[in-house]
Write a structure and sequence with these properties.
Elements lengths: L19 E5 L17 E11 L2 E10 L4 E2 L2 E5 L5 E6 L2 E5 L2 E5 L6 E2 L4 E9 L10 E3 L2 E2 L7 E4 L4 E4 L16 E3 L16 E10 L2 E9 L3 E8 L11 E2 L11 E8 L4 E7 L4 E6 L12 E2 L7 H6 L6 E7 L3 E7 L4 E8 L8 E8 L8 E8 L5 E8 L5 E8 L7 E2 L14 E2 L10 E5 L9 E2 L5 E6 L14 E7 L5
Parallel strand pairs: 15-32, 28-34
Antiparallel strand pairs: 1-2, 2-3, 3-10, 4-9, 5-8, 5-11, 6-10, 7-8, 11-12, 13-14, 15-36, 16-17, 17-18, 18-19, 20-21, 21-22, 22-23, 24-25, 25-26, 26-27, 28-29, 29-30, 30-31, 33-35, 35-36
Length: about 475
C-alpha cells in the first residue's frame, strides 16, 4: 500500500475428508399454454472436512445447471443417525433422518451455472457416511440436464436437449474497461481527506458495501453503500473512527462474512499488527467492535528476519473448508502466509511462512488478494507490483490449494493481470496506475469466491500528473470490467 524507501510509511481435530460429488436432473413436465423452459439440473458436492469423536463439520456446495432460481430448498437423508446442530448460510431443519436446507435472504438467487455454499456442525455416533442423494426444489441432483417438454393448445411438440451450461475459465491474458473515478474524498469538518484508497467491497442485500482507507494527516477508514455504481459518487461517507474501530492508525480494510459465527469481519492494519473488528449488521457502520489483534506476540519472527527496510502491510484473509489463511506483504519482495483451523478462527494463527518471494522487491510489492474460483478446484492470487515506469499494476497466479504451489497466469508487464496497457478508458484515461483493490465477489463469506466470468475489480487510481508525498497523493476509486470473458 505504500512505497517503502521512496515514500513515508503508511500501513502493516482431526481432518478426515469425505468428498462425494453428486449432481443432476429429472424431466420437467410443462402444462398446456406454458412457454418452453430450460430443463432443470443440479449438482451437489458434500464433504466433512473436520471430524472428531461425536461430531463433525460439513460443507455443502450446490451448482444450478438449469434455469435460474430465486429461492431454493435442498433436501437429503442421513443414514447413520447424524443430527444437524448449527448451520450457516442456510436455514436447516431436521425431522428424523430427513434434512431440509433453505436459502437465507442474501443467497436466494442461483443463476444458471451459479453456485451457493453453506455448512453446518453436526453430531454423529460411530460412522458418518455422506448422504446418498440430494434434491433441489424437487429435482434430483445427478449432474445432468434433463429433457424439456413444450405443450401448446393446438399442437404438441416435444424437444429434448442435453448437456451442461457453458462453464468459463480464467483466460491466460486479460482485457478491461475502466470507469472514471467513482468514489472521491468527502471532507467534513473533522476529516479533511485528500485520498480514498485500498477498497474492499461486497454486494449484499441489494447494495454494494464499500470500505476504504482515507488520509488527512493520518489514516482512517470509511464506509459507503449504494445499490448501483451510478450512485457511488453521491453516496455519503461514514468515518469509522466514530464506531468502535476508533481513531488512530487504521488502513487497508478487507470485509467478509464469517459464516460459522454469523459475523461480519473487518480486517485492517493498525501499524504493528493485523487487527479486526466485527458486527452482525454490515449496513450499520456505527456497530463495529473495538479492534483486536490476530497475532498475540506481534510480528512473526520470519517477517522480522526478512522485512529489511520495508513495511508490514496489506492483510488478506481467506478460508477453505478446514483452515483460514492470513496473507501479508512487506514491501520487500515477500508474501507471507499464516494459518489457523477454521474452528479456532480468529485465534491461533501460526506457521507463518514465505508463500512467494522475488529478489526484485518492486515485482512483489504489496496488496495481495486470494480468491476461490467458483465451481473449480482453483484459487487465484493477484499481487501489486511497481512497473519499470514507476506505475502500479497487478500480477496473477493460480493454484489448486491456498497453500499450494502458485503457477504464473498473467504476471508480466507485457501480459499483466491489470495494467494501463491492458485497460481502456472510454471516458478518458484518468489514471496510469492500477493499484490496491478488490474483486466484486459472487458471495460474501470467508471463501472469497469469484466467478471466472466477467470479472469486476474495484481499484485505486490517480491523476498521472500528481506527485509528492505518497500518503497525500490524490487517490480515487474506479471500477474495471473484464471485456474478454471466456463465458
Amino acid at each position: 500500500m505504500s512505497l517503502a524507501r521512496l515514500f513515508t510509511p503508511r500501513r502493516a481435530r482431526l481432518a478426515a475428508l469425505a468428498t462425494v460429488p453428486l449432481v443432476a436432473m429429472t424431466a420437467l413436465t410443462v402444462v398446456a399454454q406454458q412457454p418452453a423452459s430450460a430443463a432443470p439440473g443440479c449438482s451437489v458436492t458434500y464433504s466433512a472436512p473436520s471430524q472428531w469423536d461425536g461430531g463433525f463439520t460439513a460443507s455443502v456446495a450446490v451448482t444450478n445447471l438449469g434455469d435460474a432460481v430465486d429461492g431454493w430448498t435442498l433436501t437429503w437423508s442421513f443414514g447413520a443417525g447424524q443430527q444437524v446442530q448449527q448451520a450457516w448460510n442456510a436455514q436447516v431443519t431436521q425431522s428424523g433422518s430427513q434434512v431440509t436446507a433453505r436459502n437465507v435472504s442474501y443467497n436466494a438467487a442461483i443463476p444458471t451455472g451459479g453456485r451457493v455454499e453453506f455448512g453446518f456442525n453436526g453430531t454423529s455416533s460411530g460412522s458418518n457416511p455422506s448422504p446418498a442423494a440430494f434434491t433441489l426444489n424437487g429435482t434430483l441432483c445427478t449432474g445432468d440436464v434433463g429433457p424439456t417438454t413444450t405443450t401448446t393448445t393446438t399442437t404438441t411438440t416435444t424437444t429434448t436437449t442435453t448437456g451442461n451450461p457453458p462453464v468459463g475459465n480464467l483466460p491466460s491474458s486479460f482485457r478491461w474497461n475502466s470507469s472514471g473515478a467513482l468514489i472521491s474524498p468527502k471532507p467534513d469538518s473533522t476529516h479533511a481527506n485528500v485520498a480514498v484508497k485500498d477498497p474492499s467491497v461486497v454486494y449484499y442485500n441489494g447494495k454494494y458495501h464499500v470500505f476504504a482507507s482515507t488520509y488527512t494527516n493520518g489514516y482512517n477508514l470509511m464506509y459507503t453503500s449504494f445499490s448501483d455504481w451510478s450512485q457511488a459518487s453521491a453516496a455519503p461517507h461514514y468515518y469509522l473512527d466514530r464506531s468502535g474501530v476508533g481513531s488512530g492508525y487504521r488502513a487497508a480494510p478487507q470485509v467478509f462474512y464469517f459464516a460459522p459465527q454469523r459475523l461480519w469481519y473487518l480486517v485492517y492494519q493498525t501499524g504493528s499488527n493485523a487487527s479486526y473488528s466485527t458486527t452482525s449488521d454490515i449496513s450499520n457502520p456505527s456497530s463495529w467492535s473495538a479492534p483486536k489483534n490476530f497475532y498475540a506476540n506481534g510480528m512473526p519472527q520470519i517477517i522480522r528476519d526478512n522485512i529489511g527496510n520495508g513495511y508490514w502491510v496489506d492483510f488478506w484473509m481467506v478460508c477453505d473448508t478446514a483452515k483460514c489463511y492470513l496473507f501479508s506483504s512487506d514491501d520487500n519482495g515477500h508474501l507471507y502466509r499464516s494459518e489457523t483451523n477454521l474452528s479456532q478462527f480468529p485465534n491461533g494463527f501460526t506457521n507463518t511462512v514465505i508463500a512467494m518471494q522475488d529478489s526484485n522487491r518492486n515485482r512483489l510489492f504489496e496488496a495481495s488478494n486470494v480468491y476461490k474460483i467458483a465451481g473449480k478446484n482453483q484459487w487465484l492470487l493477484v499481487h501489486e507490483a511497481i512497473g519499470s515506469d514507476g506505475r502500479r499494476w497487478f500480477r496473477s497466479w493460480t493454484a489448486s490449494a491456498i497453500n499450494g504451489q502458485w503457477t504464473a497466469l498473467a504476471d508480466s508487464e507485457s501480459n499483466p493481470f491489470a495494467r494501463a496497457n491492458n485497460v481502456t478508458f472510454p471516458g478518458g484515461q484518468w489514471t496510469r496506475d492500477i493499484s490496491h483493490g478488490e474483486m466484486v465477489r459472487t458471495n460474501v463469506d470467508q471463501t472469497m469466491e469469484i466467478s471466472p466470468c466477467k470479472l469486476s475489480y474495484l481499484y485505486q487510481g490517480l491523476d498521472p500528473n500528481a506527485g509528492g508525498d505518497y500518503n497525500r497523493l490524490p487517490w480515487r476509486l474506479g471500477l474495471l470490467t473484464q471485456t474478454n470473458s471466456t463465458c
